[in-house]
């Protein structure tokens, strides 16, 4: 059942908040501008370092023996990984010969969600109606229900077993005659389910914890549950703690175990004796990467360039929206002052928003162009000329479409003055 909360904000409070927002707006604008400038330089440096690295890379045709000729050089190599490490989860008594062992925990909890609707009031005030809804579902973390808005659900969340997410990583993974560093070991992927077979001692310990949480009935029932292993169910790679895995209740816990086994990989890294390390370009950018499967040098560098390009656009968008948010914070006071008449304020808000979007885009474009020029990319000059040209064009067009002086209307009854 949903509950609602009504919050009222006076006109004075809104104006005061808008004034405070000017400072935050300037801060966001500066951060967005700096991010845009930094991002372009970072991307250009990475792109150039990848191109140089591609030309310097040696193809390691065999990894079966240590080859001194590659020591200190950037190489591309493909082959199988191996490990003798046994990863152990002591809580559940699980042992696996694997590169990685993972424990993922989910909790069945009451979840609170909210949605708000805001309405401007005549005179400049504002009324916000927030609706809080509640539903049961699986969550990746425990949810604190002590501060739920609805008293009915307050304090309703429990957990039958206080288990945490955890990962275990092998320390010794070989790549032919070489050892992989931890940075590359972490990149080995390919989750597979762990076939579970828990001991009776582990089941009893888990069941006892669950029974104690459920002791809101009687101790006798808890003891009976302990004897019958009522709360612990194992299915494949999932441990379910609860009365019925097909009918989850608040507090039930679901624990999923996966492992990553050794497999064929391809790497780009610098050889350092019997292991590998990062290759560092003259501009400071480093390269040390691992991908699954037998991937060619060309394909790996293409993937690195694609990743670099994706990051470029991600940070461009982030920078743009920070600039836009900053401008809205700076000029938001204009709309807020007009909120005494909501209809007029809404019209002005549309006009101001459109202008700010255009200004934010133009400013971002100019900053990107200046960054390219600063970092020595000639196309930045072309972009800057285009940006300035568009600004001049829109400025002239806006001026041409500005208000015209009114002309006196002529009617058929009013003859035009005769020429002298």
Strand content: 25-35%
Question: How many strand units?
Answer: 19
Number of helical segments? 7
Helix percent band: 40-55%
Low-confidence stretches: 216-222, 414-420
Order of helices and strands: EHEEEEEEEEEHEHHEEEEEEEEHHH
Specify Rg, calculated over alpha carbons: 32 Å
Overall mean pLDDT score? 87
Major sheet details:
8 strands, antiparallel
Structural class based on helices, strands and sheet pairing: alpha+beta
Terminal CA distance reads 86 Å
Globally, the shape reads flat
Outline the fold blueprint.
Elements lengths: L2 E7 L1 H46 L1 E2 L14 E9 L3 E4 L4 E4 L2 E21 L5 E14 L26 E4 L4 E2 L2 E2 L2 H4 L5 E3 L6 H14 L5 H10 L3 E4 L2 E4 L11 E8 L3 E9 L2 E3 L1 E2 L5 E2 L1 E4 L4 H41 L4 H33 L4 H22 L20
Parallel strand pairs: 2-3
Antiparallel strand pairs: 1-7, 3-9, 3-15, 4-5, 6-7, 6-8, 6-14, 9-10, 11-14, 12-13, 13-14, 15-16, 15-19, 17-18
Helix pairs in contact: 1-5, 1-6, 3-4, 5-6, 6-7
Could you write a compact summary of the structure shown?
The chain has 420 residues and is α+β, with helices and mostly antiparallel strands. The chain contains seven helices and 19 strands.
């Amino acid at each position: 059942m949903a509950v609602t909360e009504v919050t009222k904000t006076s006109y004075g409070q809104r104006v005061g908040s808008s004034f405070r927002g000017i400072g935050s707006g300037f801060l966001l604008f500066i951060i967005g501008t700096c991010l845009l400038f930094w991002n372009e330089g970072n991307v250009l440096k990475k792109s150039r370092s990848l191109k140089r690295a591609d030309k310097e890379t040696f193809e390691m045709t065999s990894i079966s023996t240590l080859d001194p000729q590659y020591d200190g050089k950037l190489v591309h190599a493909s082959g199988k990984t191996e490990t003798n490490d046994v990863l152990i989860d002591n809580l559940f008594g699980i042992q696996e010969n694997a590169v990685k062992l993972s424990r993922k925990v989910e909790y069945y909890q009451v979840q609170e969600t909210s949605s708000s609707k805001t309405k401007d009031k005549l005179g400049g005030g504002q009324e916000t109606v927030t609706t809080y809804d509640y539903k049961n579902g699986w969550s990746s973390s425990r949810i604190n229900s002590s501060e739920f808005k609805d008293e009915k659900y307050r304090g309703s969340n429990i957990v039958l077993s206080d288990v945490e997410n955890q990962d275990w990583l092998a320390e010794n993974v070989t790549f032919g005659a070489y050892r992989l560093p931890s940075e590359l070991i972490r990149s080995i992927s390919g989750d597979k389910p762990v076939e579970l077979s828990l001991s009776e001692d582990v089941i009893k310990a888990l069941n006892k914890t669950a029974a104690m949480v459920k002791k809101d009935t009687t101790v006798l029932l808890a003891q009976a549950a302990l004897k019958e292993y009522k709360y612990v169910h194992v299915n494949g790679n999932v441990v379910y703690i609860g009365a019925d895995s097909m009918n989850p209740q608040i507090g039930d816990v679901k624990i999923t175990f996966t492992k990553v086994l050794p497999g064929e990989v391809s790497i780009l890294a610098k050889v350092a004796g019997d292991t590998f390390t990062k290759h560092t370009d003259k501009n400071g950018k480093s390269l040390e990467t691992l991908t699954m499967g037998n991937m060619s040098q060309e394909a790996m560098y293409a993937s690195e360039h694609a990743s670099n390009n994706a990051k470029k656009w991600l940070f461009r968008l982030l920078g743009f929206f920070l600039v836009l948010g900053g401008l809205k914070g700076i000029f938001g006071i204009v709309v807020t002052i007009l909120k005494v008449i909501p209809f007029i304020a809404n019209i002005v808000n549309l006009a101001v928003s459109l202008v700010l979007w255009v200004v934010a885009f133009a400013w971002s474009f100019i900053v990107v162009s200046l960054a390219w020029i600063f970092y020595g990319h000639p196309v930045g000059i072309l972009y800057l000329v285009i940006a300035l040209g568009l600004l001049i064009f829109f400025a002239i067009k806006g001026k041409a479409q500005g208000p015209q002086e009114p002309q006196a209307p002529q009617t058929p009854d009013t003859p035009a003055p005769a020429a002298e």
